[in-house]
Amino acid sequence: MTVKISSIGLKGLEGYCVQVQVHISEGKESMVIVGLPDTSVKESKERVLSAVHTLGCDVSEQKIVVNLSPSEQKKNGPFFDLAMAIGILKEKGEVKEKIPDDSVFIGALSLDGTVEKVEGMLPALIAARSLGFKRIYLPSDPLLPLDMFEGLECIVIGHINDVLQHLSGQGLLPLHKPLQPINILSQTFVHPKDFQDIIGHAHAKQAFEIAAAGEHNVLMSGPPGCGKSLLAETFPSILPPLTRDAQLEVMSLYQLAKEKLASPQVAPYRSPHHSASSVAIIGGSSNPKPGEISLAHCGVLFLDEMAEFPKKTLDMLRQPLEAGMVTISRAQSTVTYPSSFILIAAMNPCPCGFLGSDTRYCTCTPKQIQSYKNRISGPIYDRIDILLFLHSVNLDQPTKNQVGSIDIRQRVEKARERQYERYQERVSNAKVSFERLSKTSPLKEHQLNMIRQVSTKQQWSNRVQLKIIRLARTISDLEGSLEITDESIWKAITLRRGNPRKEQKAGKGF
Predict the structure, then answer these.
(1) pLDDT at 74
(2) DSSP β-bridge partners for residue 327
(3) Which of 90, 119, 231, 263 is a good FRET partner for 508, with 20 to 30 A between their CA atoms?
(4) Cα 395 from chain centre
(5) HEC states along 327-376?
(6) CA-to-CA distance for 483 and 478, rounded, in angstroms?
(7) Angle, helices 462-479/202-214, rounded to nearest 10 degrees
(8) How many CA atoms lie within 13 A of 239 on its CB side?
(9) Does residue 8 contact residue 17 with C-beta atoms inside 8 Å?
């Protein structure tokens, strides 16, 4: 007779059900694991056999065959140690009770039978709940938000003997039952920086409010010290807090990458250095891990000195910016990680940095300026919604009565709610499909002609024209308008063109 025990395997962030099938027969003492196991899974047999021996179960002169189904899917990690041990004990008759089909087992075993935590337990928990399991046996991990898993009974164990006692109804284990839902949207978040402390830049603040409301990408250009980095670092303070599902996704990505997450409720903010490799930013290595774009999921990716990044690395951002996910293919496996983020980039207008400055004279030649701008390809420019040209601000400007991040965030949240209600799902204007956007907010004929005329003059691609419509929809949402207004279209065109006055002074182009 073959015993079947359920466990969870991971393919990137995606979890799937693994059925651990155990069969024991008379023969030369051995244990064989089949089902495309990697080295870490093959080594499980020594840990499992040692743990089984500690319970007094004799498997000498026995041939144990373990099949991990589905057989065509590669298995990795010590997720299946506990399930293998329970299967062997059940096959040997040490476990008399029937193991429920809606129960799943994950965890690594030490030689004495202690159950230890494994990497990727949070995405495994998410997968177990989505697959319909009602009960999960897992080792203790203080970083796991077990109370957030409604409908899933999480049984924390320390030793394999605890599982046997619980299955027989003899032992009492700390059962983690779901608590009442937490309204995270009503909680107050303290950010280290606030927009009310930034002097000047009223136009830039308004642009960032629009970017936060619709999840639009922003590219800033300006001389050194004009406040580009400060604006980017303050931007997360006006983003709405993450929802429960978004928190679990972000925490899972950080656990897989072995990175520390400051707060699961606040939108993540990542700022890689321009010397970072493409693997560090996109993700990869021999065993694919999440990169910076995935760690910025549901948050902000800030690329300071964007023109200093390798052009090849920047071009790799095309797919994630469009699809909201990145697929990494390696010889061992192909995984997909979510990477839906807001791109905030900053760069100097020229190599010396003072093109268009009010205080310094630019010493760069036109050829040097054009070569510097060409470091960012046209397709990347097309994926930017808002272009800003900043200039230095005098410190003697008044700072009283400036709007703070809390007030801006409240307006952003109201605009987001209008979008969620219109699309009947939690999706923003920048991420929703254009078919749904045009269906829910159709443009008038004179508005389309307005966009066509400006686009023809500016030589804008179709993608840029669609981004103008998305921007206009977000501006109308902030104003509380049910339809896209003519004024919002003109504002969107202005945000896409950058600063016309500066363009005339600094030279043609951004």
Answers:
(1) 86
(2) 336
(3) 231
(4) 38
(5) EEECCCCEEEEECCCEEEEEECCCCCCCCCCCCCCCCCCHHHHHHHHCCC
(6) 12
(7) 100
(8) 24
(9) yes
Name all domains of the chain by residue range, CATH numbers in brackets.
3-176 (3.30.230.10), 186-432 (3.40.50.300)
How many other β-carbons are positioned within 10 Å of the β-carbon of residue 64?
Answer: 24
Mean pLDDT along residues 200-225: 93
Residue 23 has pLDDT above 60, yes or no: yes
* C-beta of residue 51 within 8 angstroms of C-beta of residue 88: no
Q: 145-148 long-range CB contacts below 8 Å, 24 or more apart?
A: 145/247, 145/248, 145/251, 145/264, 146/176, 147/176, 147/178, 147/179, 148/178, 148/244, 148/247, 148/248
302 pLDDT tier (thresholds 50, 70, 90):
very high
> Which one, of 502, 492, 493, lies nearest residue 457 by Cα?
493
Residue 180: pLDDT over 70: no
Place of tokens 């072995």: 258
Phi/psi for 300 (5° steps) reads: -125, 135
The backbone torsions φ and ψ at residue 306, rounded to the nearest 5 degrees and listed phi first, read -60, -35
DSSP string, 152-193: -EEEEESBHHHHHHHHHT-----EE---PPP-GGGS----S-
pLDDT at 186 (0 to 100) = 40
More confident residue, 416 or 96: 416
Could you tell me whether strands 30-34 and 62-69 are parallel, antiparallel, or unpaired per DSSP bridges?
A: parallel
Specify the 3-state DSSP secondary structure of 55. Answer: coil
For residues 440 and 423, is the Cβ–Cβ distance under 8 A?
A: yes
Residue 440's contacts (CB-CB under 8 Å, 6 or more residues apart) are 422, 423
Q: How far apart are CA 260 and CA 434, in angstroms?
A: 36
Residue 265's pLDDT band, with cuts at 50, 70 and 90, is: confident
In this prediction, residues 211-218 reach a mean pLDDT of: 96
Which residues face 138 on adjacent strands?
A: 156
The helix (H) or strand (E) run that includes residue 244 is helix 244-257
**In 3D, which of 17, 209, 240, 42 has the Cα closest to residue 131?**
17
pLDDT given for residue 334 in this prediction? 81
Q: Return the pLDDT at 149.
A: 87
Instruction: Tell me how far apart the alpha carbons of residues 341 and 199 are, in angstroms, rounded to a whole number.
Output: 27
State yes or no: pLDDT of 273 exceeds 70.
yes
Structure-token pair, residue 475: 């501006």
Look at the block and give the residue holding tokens 């009283």. Answer: 400
Q: Which residues pair with 32 in a beta bridge?
A: 65
Q: What is the pLDDT of residues 310-323, one digit of tens each?
A: 999 999 999 999 99
Q: How far apart are CA 269 and CA 275, in angstroms?
A: 18
